[in-house]
Amino acid sequence: MIDIESFFLDNLVKDEMGIYISKYFLNNQTSEINERSDALKKINSSNYLKLLSKHHSLPVNDSNIVDFLGSIPKSGIILDVGGAWGYHWRDLNKVRPDITLIIIDIVRENLIISKKILSEQINKNIFLICGDGQRLPFKNNSFHGYWNVQTLQHIPELTKAIKEAHRVLKD
Questions:
Q1: What is the CA angle 23-103-77, rounded to 5?
Q2: Among 15, 68, 78, 82, whose Cα sits 20 to 30 Å from the Cα of 129?
């Protein structure tokens, strides 16, 4: 097993919340970041899953995750770009405890909520990075899987994000 922190995260800074910060931002999503940050600050609930279930089918999402995990090799490493609250991965340790997951999102407030939902797994087998899917802070051929749900349509330069996904994925 590789040391994830030294292999993937050594060029990042960990903040006081345990969230890693990437210095690689293209800064073409400032209004999106600000709008989402402001909306998240207005959430007046700590039951995030109940709030999510009003807009998302958790059983469908869970089923999709299980199917996806079936394609990942033993001790595989997954990158979730735009992982937001990370709720998709709340049962990762039950389904595939051998998997390492890196969630990257441009909105730090999303990752703070993700940390609450995934608390026991954070900085063990799930790592949170505030960063940009258009400029990923990882080496080539680093990941066995790339997960993305309803994020790419928000990225201004889709071609850059797709090229970055291709670059960091193993053959």
A1: 110
A2: 68
